[in-house]
Amino acid sequence: MEDRAYEKMNIQWFPGHMTKAQRMIEQDLKLVDAVCEILDARIPRSSRNPDIDRLAGDKPRLLILNRVDLADPAVTARWRRQFESQGYAVLETDAKSGKGVKDFVPAVRRLLQDKLKEYEAKGQTGRTLRVMILGIPNVGKSTFINKVAGRKAAIAGDKPGVTRGKQWISIDKGLDLLDTPGILWPKFESQEVGEMLAITNAIKADVLDKETLGANFMLRLREYYPQALTERYKFTPDPEANGFELLEEAAKKRGFLVSRGEYDIERMANTLLGEYHDGKLGRLSLEQPDDGSVGKGE
Ligand code: G4P
Predict the structure, then answer these.
(1) Selection from 166-170, 199-203, 289-293 with the highest mean pLDDT
(2) Using an 8 Å Cβ cutoff, are 71 and 114 in contact?
(3) Cβ–ligand 1 contact at 135 (below 6 Å)
(4) How far is the centre of ligand 1, averaged over its atoms, from the C-alpha of 197 (Å)?
(5) What three-state secondary structure class fits 65?
(6) Hey, whose CA ends up nearest to atom 28 of ligand 1?
(7) What is the residue-wise DSSP string for 211-240?
(8) pLDDT digits (tens, 9 = 90+) for 142-163
């Protein structure tokens, strides 16, 4: 975002276990036939790990756009086209309800059909395919794997940044998945990436200043989805207001009064982020593909 109204935030977050996970992934890549990266459909750019392209080399790649239930369908369709034009196989899923998940196994088989033929030519019929599942913390990896496996195969958790050890999960019909701890990258390449990760719960929002995060989020909503503010918080965002003023306006409408004439914008920031998380603002995507489309996906 180039808008000068956006407040600067200081975001640096790189726990040691992330480097370790990255090294582990580098080694484990030798064991798999394909790499499947799970992205948050609302932030397909920020939820990709920029190192994976380098690490994965020429392994066949599948991108899962997860949480499509919370993303703007028109924007998701554009992301899908963009990724497909870059040579990735793409699936759209809502792992929570299981929507789209049944297409995963056929998609992997399609992706690896040449490999399967190669194995068969060598007499290795019925060889198990191995796919590494990657994704940033809290993107829905465990939920997705559980749904694909049809049983409680991976432990789903709700703590951003908490990693689990890697494990193989056997899926019926000759397919093994390698679950990996969520990884992030050494430095957020921009403040925007950090904000996107905090808004979508990939990193704990308390490592950031919640009020500033909420204020910047308000500006983004005014720019892309002003109707969401009108519908949910019953005000038409003033084009001249800064993010804090927008928070204050919403706080007024909600009656978040601290003292006479003073409104609780911190509470409003928490409410805004919580309601976005719960899908109460509607299906809103936070990143647009660079496909030259002028529409904002409304
Ligand atoms: P992880 O392994 O990548 O760390 O993520 P995990 O599966 O634990 O999922 C993190 C949270 O995201 C879970 O919520 C899960 O239910 C939710 N989730 C996963 N996929 C989807 C999806 O496609 N749509 C929606 N709406 N949610 C999804 P939780 O921790 O139980 O609680 P909460 O985040 O719902 O509050």
Answers:
(1) 199-203
(2) no
(3) yes
(4) 14
(5) strand
(6) 96
(7) HHHHHHHHHHHHHH-HHHHHHHH--PPPTT
(8) 899 999 988 655 554 444 443 4
222, 246 contact by CB (below 8 A) = yes
Distance of CA 278 to the CA centre of its chain: 15
**Mean predicted confidence (pLDDT) in 183-208:** 76
Selection from 192, 137, 141, 159 nearest residue 18 by Cα: 137
Here the tokens at position 200 are 């979508």
Report pLDDT digits (tens) over 272-290.
Answer: 999 999 999 999 999 999 8
Which atom, in ligand 1's list, is nearest to the CA of 38?
Answer: 3
Give the span between the Cα atoms of 34 and 49, in whole angstroms: 16
- SS3 at position 34: strand
Long-range contacts formed by 100-107: CB under 8 A, 24+ apart: 100/68, 101/144, 101/147, 101/148, 104/64, 104/148, 105/148, 105/171, 105/173, 105/175, 107/62
Angle subtended by helix axes 113-121 and 104-111, to nearest 10: 60
Q: Which tokens in the block code for residue 192?
A: 């925007």
Residues written for the chain? 298
Residue 164 burial class via C-beta count within 10 angstroms: exposed 0-12, middle 13-18, buried 19 and up: middle
